[in-house]
Amino acid sequence: MTPAGEPTSLAARQAALVASLVAGGPPPSGFAPGPLAAARAALLRKRAGEVARHWPLLATGLGPAWPTVFIEWAAGRPGAGGLRDGWDLARALHARAALPALGAEELAVRESDLYYDGQRAPRRRRLPALGRAGDALALQVAGRIHLLRRRRAPCKHPRCPAAPGPDGRRRAK
Q: Structural domain tally of the chain?
């Protein structure tokens, strides 16, 4: 280290640059902040694409807001891989009651199939398990996952074939 507290070895300078790019660390000396911010934003977009490949229903459920939601959540967090980043984001959105229905179903399925404590890599569950997120409930028994959904109220539109007729029964098609 120099008297100003700057790292002197190449490895220490590289580590400072990586920390600045992916973990929200302070910019190292000798780098212009503009290009560094552009590189950081590009890496976050790339990471959002990787997470969307592992969590397609979560990304679809958020729609056009997906990149913005992910980048806001991921800024300052080091990457843990697409599967784990998506899992952590889904849990964070669920805690804030901002998880879309498709993402809730995907999270419930993952929670029933794999055990993930937020620290170590996910691993398969051996015993029957339930996963729940929002209105979605997933049951895993013997390696098979069953997604259970609430019954939706029947359509009340008078011309809908699923709407009940005057006698309360469904209309024939």
A: 1
Inside any domain, residue 18 = no
Asked if pLDDT for residue 7 goes beyond 80, the answer is no
pTM: 0.67
CB within 8 Å of 58: residues ≥ 6 apart: 52, 66, 86, 89, 90, 99, 100, 102, 103, 106, 107
User: The tokens of 126 are what?
Assistant: 């051996």
Q: Is residue 107 part of a domain?
A: yes
DSSP 146: E
Which residue segment(s) compose the domain that 108 sits in? 36-148
Distance in angstroms (rounded) separating the CA atoms of residues 1 and 134: 51
* Rounded CA separation 40/20 (Å): 8
